[in-house]
Amino acid sequence: MISVNYHDDLKEVQSDGALSWLLSDKVQTAPFDRLEWWSLLAQHCALKPLLVVARDSSDTVVLPLAGGGVHLTQLSNWYTFRFRPILSPGADSAALLLAMADSLAGRTSRITLHGLPEADADLIARSFRSDGWIALCAQCDVNHVLALEGRDFEAFLAGRPGRLRTTLKRKSGKVRTQVLPYFDDALWSAYEDIYAESWKPEEGSPAFLRAFARAEGAAGRLRLAVANDLDGRAVAAQMWTVEGGTAFIHKLAHRESAKALSPGSVLSAALFRHVIDVDKVDMVDFGTGDDAYKRDWMEQVRPRCRLDLIRPRSPRNWPILIRHAAASLAARAKRG
Prior knowledge:
Strands 1, 2, 3, 4, 5, 6, 7, 8, 9, 10, 11, 12 and 13 form a 13-stranded mixed sheet that branches. The protein folds into two domains: about 5-140 and about 305-335, Aminopeptidase, CATH 3.40.630; about 150-280, Aminopeptidase (3-Layer(aba) Sandwich). Helix 4 (about 95-105) packs across helix 5. The mean pLDDT is about 95. The chain has helices spanning about 10-15, 15-20, 35-45, 95-105, 120-130, 155-160, 160-170, 185-195, 205-220, 265-280, 290-295, 320-335; strands spanning about 5, 50-55, 60-70, 70-75, 85, 110-115, 135-145, 175-180, 220-230, 235-245, 245-255, 285-290, 300-310. Helix 10 links the parallel strand 11 (about 245-255) and strand 12. It is an alpha+beta fold and about 325 residues long. The termini are far apart. It is built from twelve helices and 13 strands.
């Protein structure tokens, strides 16, 4: 017997021992899959959580959604590298997701999920189609990663583009780098100051990022780094986390006024050296976005998908389906 429950109060989930354990760092080895991450999103990023939980006597599937009413979305935002359903080990995911799809049909008429790995998008799509939903899937982003396959830092560096290796050789003596495995208020203030003078857009939620960095520092997973010029001025800063054999590159910035020193590249090299030779990670994950500089460091590109789950009998969805059909016909005509 499968039950489906909805939780819009995450404190309620914390009181459920089995569920909070599944969504904790005892089981999940990426921050985006944990209750703590979703709680920070709800607290600092104006997201309204709705955790959908399907359970039988031994297995659980959690789909972290947001919003309310006729259109739900994923519980994530620009800080989230990827979104996926959370499965208990060995769960019969197809049966649980089918029960979830049937229950959600009585609650909403459309669900839009961004940032899904292909396998997860396919799993959800198949289950929801079995319950009469229309599932429209398309690539929406990419994820750059590095699989080290036993290489140390020097072996990894030898495989980088010649232009990058030359830059590091010429510029490494012009800045001094430091990598801290804990949260430091002064260094974080320097990061925020650097970010404000960088090429990047305004930070979406500084409070979220600070709270996350502080929590990861307390857990021993934070790698907070700074590069100072020879006058002692902080000119670049980065925030990474490390767990489960993976280093996640969350934030990086350098002052535009210090661009000639290439402080971002030099600091990245220091962090790669640290996570590879000290933390002994197997994988480095550079998140989403197809920025050119990521290709200098990463070696694989994985697609991220958008999945639109639609109830076809809802009139409010007909314009969406008509537009999709027209676009499909136009694409076929172009190919043919």
